[in-house]
Amino acid sequence: MFLWGLWIDPLYLVLFIATLIISGAAQLFIRSQFGKWSGVHNSSGLSGLQVGERLGEAIRFDGAAAGGASRVSFKIVPGDLSDHFDPRTKEVGLSQAVASQPSIAAMAVTAHEVGHAQQDAEGTVAMRARAFLVPAVTFSPTLSYILIFIGLIFNLAGLFWLGIVVFGLMVVFSVLTLPVEIGASRRALVMLRESGLMTTAEEEQGVRRVLTAAAMTYVAAAVTSILTLLYYLSIARR
């Protein structure tokens, strides 16, 4: 298929469009839900940071009490929707919007990240498996693209297949991320209920929608990475 004088694989064009639609839809969903529930105050009147500190009191690390030196800590990080948990430092990073707002969205996002801290403290299988792959996937996207590109250009089948294997590590990481993220969201709901921070039907609805929207971004990432891997495999078999 020729486009603007260049040959473009029709299957690649389909993949490109599908990736744009899936990723774009997931991003629109999370931003719409976060934006909606950011405008609704939670009943406790606590900001995301205060919610995190309240929930974090019950978390243990390496057998140490949460109030000890190894308790989970919080910090403000730059960016929009950049909230995360760092298992190396036991720190939950909260974006300014989440840390400072007493909203349902801020409560949901913070509880989700504390859920990751709880997973790390308990050493869940999925969390350990994902952590094991982190060093490998740090450079795998760039390395895989280089190997695949060189393999295609110079018709080096061995190099091309090596690139596919390296890219496969990223696919495995994306798939392993799903149970970790879904598990953290389930923990978030339990913690918010048990702590008495989520007390109304509206709060539960908002928390669920924000967490579901967040999970969809990881589902989209896993689906697009799998589709890309299948595309590379189809090229290798031609």
Query: What radius of gyration results from the CA coordinates?
Result: 21 Å
Helical run tally: 7
Structural class: mainly alpha
Strand order of the largest sheet: 3-5-4
Share of residues in helices = 55-70%
Largest β sheet strand count, sense and barrel closure: 3 strands, mixed
Shape: elongated
- How many E strands? 5
The quaternary organization reads as: single chain
- Approximately how much beta-strand content do the residues carry? 5-15%
Overall mean pLDDT = 89
Low-confidence spans: pLDDT under 50, at least 5 residues?
1-6, 63-69
Q: Spell the H/E element sequence.
A: EEHHEEEHHHHH
Distance between the termini: 16 Å
Give a description of the structure.
The chain is mainly alpha-helical. Helix content is 69%, strand content 7%. The protein is built from 7 helices and 5 strands. It has helices spanning 10-38, 48-56, 96-100, 104-122, 125-153, 157-194, 201-236; strands at residues 2-3, 6-7, 73-77, 84-86, 91-95. The strands form 2 sheets. It has a 3-stranded mixed β-sheet. A two-stranded antiparallel sheet has the order 1-2. A hairpin with a 4-residue loop joins strand 4 and strand 5. Helix 1 (10-38) runs antiparallel to helix 7, helix 2 (48-56) packs parallel to helix 4 and helix 5 runs antiparallel to helix 6. It is elongated and about 60 Å long. It starts with a strand and ends with a helix.
